Amino acid sequence: MNNEQQISILVLDDEPVVCKRLRPILEKKGYAVETFFESEEALKRFKEKPFHIVITDLKMKGLDGMQFLTAVKELSPDTEVIVITGFATMETAKESFRKGVFDFLAKPFKLGEISDIIQKAEVKVRGRIS
Amino acid sequence: MGDRKRIARQESFNVFFKTFQKILTANNQMLAVISEMGDKLSGDYIFDSQYIRSACREAEELTQELITGINILAPGKYTGLNDAFQHIQSEIQEEQAGRPVIPKTDHIMLYHLINRDFEDVVGAKNANLGEIKNVLELNVPDGFAVTTRAFDSFMSVNNLWDKVKTITDAWYNKKLSVEKASQQIQTLIADTKIPDPLKKAVDKASGLLYRGIKGQKPFLAVRSSAWGEDSGHSFAGQYLSLLNEPADHLLDCYKKIVASAYSASAMEYRRNKGFSEKEVVMAVGCQLMINPRTSGVLYTFDPQMPERDLMLISSTWGLGAPIVDGRSASDHFQVNRRFPYAETLITIAEKTEKLVLQKNGGTKNCSVPNEGRTAASLTPKQLKLLAKTALMIERHFKTPQDIEFAFDKEGTLFILQARPLNIQINRSMIIHDLPDILSRHPILFGNKGTIAQRGIAIGKVFKIFKDEDIDVFPLGAILVAKYTSPRFAKVIRKTAGIITDVGSATGHMATIAREFRVPTIVNTGNATALLESKQEITMDAEENNIYKGIINELRNYHLIEAPIEETFEYRLLRRVLKKTGSLNLLDPTADNFTPSGCKTFHDITRFVHEKAVEELINLQYYHHHDPKTATGKLKLPVPLDLVLIDIGAGLVVNENEKSAPIVPEQIDSIPMRAFIDGLLMPGAWDTDPMSVGLGSFMSSMTRTFSTNMATPKDIGQNLAVISKPYAHISLRLGYHFTMIDAYIDDNPNNNYAYFRFLGGVTDITKRSRRALLLSEILEKNDFFIEVRGDLVVARIKKLTTERMVRKLYLLGVLVGFSRQLDVQMLSDQHVHRYMENFNQLITSNSNIYEHEGSHYEQ
Q1: Do A114 and B436 touch (CB under 8 A)?
Q2: Distance from CA of A108 to the nearest CA of B (A)
Q3: Which of B284, B322, B420, B511 could form a disulfide with B327 if both were Cys (CB 3.0 to 4.6 A apart)?
């Protein structure tokens, strides 16, 4: 693990429980994790430092998730974005994929489901950076 | 009967059965929604408050459907259900709006009734102490809480709420200094008369408290217990504590404590921390004063250097207030967090003064006699006891703890307060190292079975194969067993974690594990084979991995994270589940089995279902010749009269056989057929070792009386309402009432079985033994059990068709097997023996049993 570059993940969800639950799981796997409750804050941070993987909610106050992920993709097209949302519709899913989202997950979901997706995203990211 | 009349009646039957079916469907959906909400709490899921909103809405709609249904079946009979519904609904809406409701409880609550679920009612400090006293069974001075409800009624007198708001607004708008604002509010409170009902309640509670201590004049410790205090934010030292107060000062003390909520420093503290003044809700704890020889404070970690794995203890002679206030010299000890809790550093201070109780109330300083000044105020033995106790509390609350304690003159340890300890941890260092440390420890197995309670457990494996093993269970070990058993409750306080091969996350044992917050993984398949006795393991029940060896870093990592259970969404889901999912109406013969007794949506669901079946049975009974249903007696090779009512595709009836008795082969109802098959399993009915005379007497009792002679109420005939996926079976065998309600189709989410067993001809001891036997057998077969005296309620749900069918078969065997056992339950050994008999019975027919349901395999 030490020889490989550490994969960085940004998690954005305005409900603290999501960040809180995801963080330990990702940290124990060796990812560098930063969590945000507000999209403006998250975007500010992303501009300072692009992340390999972004996990974001869609419905948020202020800058919503769709705007946020659009900005992320513009800043760093190689960043893999995973959308998690409690208001999953066919429309939002389609729009997300059009914007180049890696995967789309409806809340509530099982920890195993998101772990699998992140792992796949990691493989893709590593394929690119090696 | 005229044609028109006949048609009208037939139409009303149609409506009746359609409605009954609808009730069944809504009932099933409701049970599914409730159990899904419970699943979310298990920690295997990530959810948000949107989920909670939509689940509540679904539960609301289903409950309304149920009420509409029963109002059609029994017009005007259960109008109280609407009130019950509206009441529950408005409480849920308040919770969701994030306005924690000051619960409409009594003004006081006795300590022996308090646990952490009552934080809203009694404040955090009282709730923690109640949990320690009642769940962990540690010594806490007896007492009672003056509730948040009491505070609300005090503040409502003379419009105190409004007056306080005017003053705090002025302060927020900088028109008033904080000192002035505080002084004005405190004067208002001092001048307010305590309302009579509150005064009476306090008098009554103190009366009850004093009854326990004959002869002596009682003195009390009166302390604040506000919302939020002692939880995430400590409010340490913001509010008042009064020591050794005579009983007749109690009401004055109460006002002083309430006033302390508005001290200038408390008001500033709240503003700095972003609390609104609306969130000031103050409960008060009143406890018997103990006269300590030594008091002190324990931190379960060194807050500055948590990685050192040490506990810090400060202590002094007499009362502990000087330590807490930092006013006087005290002894300091460092104790290793690991057994045998070795002392690593001892610093004895020169203790010239101590704070002691005054004879007529209050406290005073007095000088310490020479020989005590440089002596240690705690013995090595006391230090070990403290360490052990503190770790137990920490494990329970899942965060590092800041604990106040005292040893009285007899040497008994009392816990006076416990709250989360904030520790300065170098998070980035742990995070940096943890993945490497984890990768160095082999995973013995992972992702097997289900997490029933999250957490990290570290310890040695101890396997339990037989009951005697429980008696020698070592403190702090990890319990590994084939089955879950309610008997493990005996050692739950000693257990670091639990892993079983078989068992369900909703079983009785899982419930106990959750109550005690012991990390638990069930249904792993073969943990007993994969783990060795005395092997040291680290059990990660956050992510379902079992590591070889001890990984303290993993535990520390999770200790620095505030437990996920305490996040807003988890608390909200727990609170709304209390209003939706809890079941209070267990026994339909109990007094509270009424519309107004319904406190949750689950209660309403249960009530409606029970009454709908009752209506159906009555209708069937009083109107024999209903054209829409096939009704008839079932012909069985055992002496049991059973009337079947088919309400939809539960029977295969040929035109020419219509008048003949029904044979089991005709039953097409999935649960009914499985039940009857079980009942008829070789040996299930005729394992009867009783004398012939008594036996024949008993079997005659299983014949129901002629259906024309008595109403179902009088005699309780053996009756089953069935359809293709459904069976409602009520039996009166001997003197027992058995009720089974089951639904099985090809969607596991719809499936459930409910079993209830009550009554018996013999004395209560024998009946309780039988209840024990039944519950043990059912528990081993993954049922969720509740036992009250001789009432046994067992539930299981969401299994595949095949497995559900096997459960119904098992219930059939069990009903046959147990129908007169209470007569024979002469001693506790019999419980064990009959349990073995039952297992043998199943084993010797395993070819049949294993085959049962296999044709439903998908």
Answers
A1: no
A2: 4
A3: B322
Contacts of A24 in chain B (CB under 8 A): 542, 557-558, 561
The predicted pLDDT at position B691 comes to: 34
With a pLDDT cut of 70, the percent of chain B lying above it is 83
> What digits encode the pLDDT tens for the residues B534-585?
999 999 998 889 999 999 888 878 877 766 776 778 878 888 888 888 777 7
Contact B299, B400 (CB under 8 A): yes
The one-character DSSP state at B398 is: T
Cis ω before B400 (30° cut-off from 0): no
Helix (H) or strand (E) holding B528: helix B527-530
Which 3 state secondary structure label does DSSP give B327? coil
Q: Number of C-alpha atoms within 13 angstroms, CB side, residue A32?
A: 13
Strand partners, A54: A10, A81
Strands A8-12 and A53-56: parallel
B231 C-beta neighbours (distance < 10 Å), count: 19
Q: Please give the Cα distance from B669 to B728 (Å, whole number).
A: 11
Tokens of B554: 């993993």
CATH entry 3.50.30.10 includes domain B442-550: yes
B774: Cα separation from own chain's centroid: 22
Q: CATH assignment of B108-288, given 3.50.50.60, 3.40.50.720, 3.30.1490.20, 1.10.10.10?
A: 3.30.1490.20
Where in chain B are the domains?
A: 3-99+573-602, 108-288, 292-420, 442-550, 629-856
Give the integer Cα–Cα distance in Å for B754 and B609. 12
Angle in degrees, CA B236, B272, A40, rounded to 5? 125
Q: In whole angstroms, what is the distance from residue A99 CA to residue B32 CA? A: 36
Report the range of poorest mean pLDDT among B410-414, B672-676, B745-749: B745-749
Place of tokens 């109280």: B80
Judged by DSSP in three states, B332 sits in strand
Give me the DSSP letters along B237-279.
Answer: TTS-EEEEEEGGGHHHHHHHHHHHTT-HHHHHHHHHHT--GGG
Assess A4–B contact: CB distance below 8 Å, yes or no.
Answer: no
**Which one of A17, A27, A58 would you mutate to disrupt binding with B, by most B Cβ within 10 Å of its Cβ?**
A17
For residue B716, how many C-alpha atoms fall within 13 Å in the half-sphere facing its CB? Answer: 15
- What whole-number distance in Å separates Cα of residue B520 and Cα of residue B124? 26
CB B245 within 8 A of CB B361: yes
- Comparing alpha-carbon positions, the chain A residue that sits nearest to B54 is A86
Check A87 against B46: CB less than 8 A apart: no
- In angstroms, the CA B231 to CA A5 distance is 40
The answer to whether B785 touches B756, Cβ cutoff 8 Å, is no
pLDDT tens digit sequence for B42-52: 767 889 888 99
Q: What is the DSSP letter of B734?
A: T
What is d(CA B673, CA B224) in angstroms, rounded to the nearest whole number? 61
Per DSSP, chain B holds a count of helices (H) and strands (E) of 27, 30
Contacts of B35 in chain A (CB under 8 A): none
Give all domains of chain A, ordered by start, each with its CATH number. 8-124 (3.40.50.2300)
pTM of this structure: 0.68
